[in-house]
């Protein structure tokens, strides 16, 4: 491998932490990723030397902050290969993007009886905003089912899509199953019927190359904190032709061209959707995180994380008490486990004492838990900075739990 794992780990100071006197084994990367030194330094330097409000100031600091904020927008554009920089809207994260999008799309395009097509493996943030929108506009939510491996049932998708469908809103990679959905295929099918597609890339942007022009998706959302950037920043990408037609989600400063008590003229893209003072440091930090990821290389990331997933999967398959939830052919580095007779919260607490950080619960995907008839899973999620030794530590700790409860 071109990249040296020890050198990579040194980029992430938190990985050297100890918990309860044991080395931290951080396997909760699907919840949030750790931050490289360069991102931490960027945030620190911004507040030390450049902090100022953007767009409105003529003074030097405001100009620097504005330039860096807008440069970060361009970095995001290039990373996902959007056609225009003003198709990139900064939000507070995937959830904020989804809520803005569902509200605005529904206002612009949805009427009673129209249908929104999602899947059974969506995160709550791609379910609840649509349910709220449906209440307002009278549209109906339809759900593509999944099979026992956690794969979309594509024949059912074809049956569900109809002239009533006005949007397909789909997760790219499932955060609790790891399934990588065939979005290129789905987008092509939807477009045949002139239906736009929204992609939740919260769990794919940090693992897979994404080219929105090649995919031809109409909208795409993700969070900065899952791609080694800060919390509180995210992206809503949309094709200009839609965003121009869609109304703003929030009103206030920066999103206007002129205001009188009688009438307000909205600003142009992307500012129309960026009301109020933005998370300036967050946006600049996200730009730096993306540069870091590009430097590590998505090919390297895919290889390293694929190896960790394969290794962990083989260890899990050796333990009779363990059932893997999510066995799709195409998977990202998420391993969700159901351990016979032991509640995930007990597992998580015991693992924690060994320094192993995993996530236990429904992972904001309650419909998936119901589909598999379980209350929760124990989820380990790997990043390129994890090691096989850390996977061994996870399984040593799991074996301990199984013995304890036997
Ligand atoms: N969608 C998916 C697939 C996710 O994994 C997450 C985060 N767990 C979200 C949406 C929501 O992201 P955020 O909490 O950063 O808004």
The molecules bound to the chains, other than polymers, are: 4'-deoxy-4'-aminopyridoxal-5'-phosphate
Specify the overall morphology.
globular
Number of helices: 14
Compute the separation of the termini in Å: 41 Å
Task: Quickly name the level 1 CATH class of the largest domain.
Answer: Alpha Beta
Largest sheet: 7 strands, mixed
Task: Describe the protein.
The protein has 406 residues and is of the alpha/beta class. The protein folds into 2 domains: 2-29 and 297-405, Aspartate Aminotransferase, domain 1 (Alpha-Beta Complex), CATH 3.90.1150; 40-295, Type I PLP-dependent aspartate aminotransferase-like (Major domain) (Aspartate Aminotransferase, domain 2), CATH 3.40.640. Helices cover 40% and strands 17% of the residues. It is built from 14 helices and 17 strands. It has helices at residues 5-10, 37-50, 60-80, 94-109, 128-137, 154-160, 183-192, 212-215, 240-243, 280-296, 298-317, 344-353, 366-371, 388-405; strands spanning 18-19, 22-23, 25-26, 88-91, 115-119, 140-144, 165-171, 197-200, 219-223, 234-238, 256-259, 264-266, 322-325, 334-339, 356-357, 359-361, 377-381. Helix 4 (94-109) packs parallel to helix 5 and helix 11 packs parallel to helix 14 (388-405). The protein is globular. The mean pLDDT is 97.
